[in-house]
From TrEMBL, chains A, B:
It comes from the Bacteria. Pfam families: SIS. The lineage of its organism: Bacteria, Bacillati, Bacillota, Clostridia, Lachnospirales. Residues 15-162 form the SIS domain. One of its GO terms (molecular function) is glutamine-fructose-6-phosphate transaminase (isomerizing) activity. GO terms for biological process: fructose 6-phosphate metabolic process; protein N-linked glycosylation; UDP-N-acetylglucosamine metabolic process. It comes from Lacrimispora xylanisolvens. This is Fructoselysine-6-P-deglycase FrlB-like protein. InterPro entries: FrlB_SIS, Fructosamine_deglycase_FrlB, SIS_dom, SIS_dom_sf.
């Protein structure tokens, strides 16, 4: 049996009930690989910032299996993201969860796959499977990043800690699809200009902070490195001034996320510097992109979904200008590794 | 009054005693910027893997100040690393700790600095201040990375959780100086060859996993980006196969850490792939470098110190070959930011 995002409240209630007499839920492990790990990043920051009592950690699947936290077991929830359900390291992590008596929640896009037999709850997320993810006709509030956040929000809300901004959070979730669709239209022209300007470059940096750093990480490793074979790194805007900023010059391009919410000041500071010393800067500003209608108490956690769904507009244009289609691979799914 | 690494056991005892009637120590926040944040990474992985009850998080100082965890307060320890005691963001974080009633431990190299007035405990760490850190005449067990680990180890050992490998850990700490000195001699010739081979490159990647990923991060942002103005990123060896490996070719250089301990298999898998598809690979293998004399139950946590102190031998040679001295900066401490 499989579930979707609207079932997560009930799933968490069931898990809490089942573990009530065994000491309760004491830890939440967020586990995946690459883009799937990146998509869990907002849930990681949510737990770090909002929860005092439930231990959480955000760990690559292979590292999790080889270097498993000692307390991982029947008082744990392991939340795994696995797009097609066939990533070997993530399947191993799910198996380990089952062996140790943890509650295993798997976020996936495919109802039938190798991993599902090891999950207690298979949550199917919405995903824009059109070429280059351009259709934009999905319910973005059902995507994996938000599903992971619902797990964290419900876990907090349904335990003694509580979550004061619960209603505001779901109010934000109901707004995100419209915000994203408008934002994608908004950047259409500048994405073309970006692609023309960047088509001969060999390196590009992404930048971000807070709960949306995960989107900068995903764009860097899954698009620029994996799908365009460009040198890249995702620089945290708070870390930028403590090393990375020394590479700034008039040639190197930067794609910077300006978040709405608590870490906006970090991003703005980096942008002021970039405007002074760099020339090739592409700015994704959540305020300009319409995110500010979401309540300030919860807005931090929606930046990632916005940026992550605006990037495809840029990616499509860049791939076209570079004549390097996004599905091109030299190793992934082609050679042994 | 200031302390050194040998006082940390007593410092933690004092903090635990002082907070006993206020609910005890419930969280440990590891906070810093750039290389100082990187140095706290092994303590982060230690807490994630070994502790079930004490919440911990590893956060850039500026992000911590702007997006402070809600539970940060009198039941918290904040452990800050600040090399010269003058990093504004880290000073702000220390102030916030004082205001909120947290126990503030500051790891620093300078006894007198701006930050010290905001710390309850100023711990002076050992540091090789010779040009390019080549002297090698210090007690490496007193360095900041190990001081941070002592805080985590003592916190676990002195609370009800306990730490079963306590004696083995300190046994390892007593061995690390000799191991590092031998390893630095061991790589002297190959570091020269590396520097000659890499002198005309414009990009270089570092790779690592587990508790030593922090060393790969530091080498990438503080040396290659900051001090050599090279494009760079630190790739987690478990994440490599989920995006970044698509940039691998016969030209791009990789500097890969092969850890001893639980995540060695991740590093070895990445190395097998690199050997097949890349040509410019520099291998830092903790086993070859003599780390294996440390007990297997604690060896994970010593890889970082080893790699981080072997890198300077390479860095010195690379800077010389590139005629780009390590202290060269264009922005840091020179312009407003």
């Amino acid at each position: 049996m499989s579930y979707n995002s609207s079932d997560i409240k009930r799933i968490i209630a069931e898990i809490i009930e089942a573990k009530k007499d065994k000491g309760g839920v004491r830890s939440l492990y967020l586990v995946g690989c690459g883009g799937s790990l990146g998509a869990l990043y907002p849930a990681k920051t949510f737990m770090e910032k909002e929860s005092a009592k439930i231990k959480s950690a955000w760990i690559n699947s292979s590292e999790f299996v080889h270097s498993t936290p000692k307390d991982f077991g029947e008082n744990s929830i392991i939340l795994l993201a696995c797009h097609k359900g066939n990533t070997p390291e993530t399947i191993q992590a799910a198996k380990l969860g089952r062996d140790r008596g943890a509650a295993v929640i798997i976020l996936t896009w495919l109802e039938e796959s190798e991993i599902v037999e090891f999950g207690d709850y298979i949550v199917l997320y919405s995903f824009d499977a059109s070429p280059d993810h351009l259709a934009g006709n999905i319910d973005y509030s059902g995507e994996k990043t938000l599903c992971a956040l619902y797990v964290a929000v419900e876990l907090l809300a349904q335990t003694e800690e509580g979550y004061a901004n619960y209603d505001k959070f779901y109010e934000g979730a109901r707004m995100i699809t419209t915000i994203i669709r408008n934002a994608r239209n908004h950047v259409a022209d500048r994405a073309k200009e970006f692609a023309m300007a960047r088509k001969n470059d060999s390196v590009i940096y992404t930048m971000g902070s807070g709960a949306s750093y995960g989107a900068a990480y995903m764009e860097s490793i899954c698009i620029f490195m994996e799908m365009q074979w460009l040198d890249s790194s995702s620089i945290h805007t708070g870390e930028y001034f403590h090393g990375p900023f020394e590479i700034t010059d008039s040639n190197r391009p930067f794609m910077i996320q300006i978040s709405e919410g608590s870490t906006r000041e970090l991003d703005e500071r980096a942008l002021v510097f970039l405007k002074k010393y760099a020339k090739n800067i592409e700015i994704l500003d959540a305020k300009e992109l319409g995110l500010s209608v979401i309540d300030g108490s919860v807005i931090d956690y929606f930046n990632h979904s916005l940026f992550n769904n605006v990037y495809p507009i840029y990616n499509h244009e860049l791939a076209a200008e570079r004549q390097h289609p996004l599905p091109t691979r030299r190793y992934m799914w082609k050679v042994e590794y």
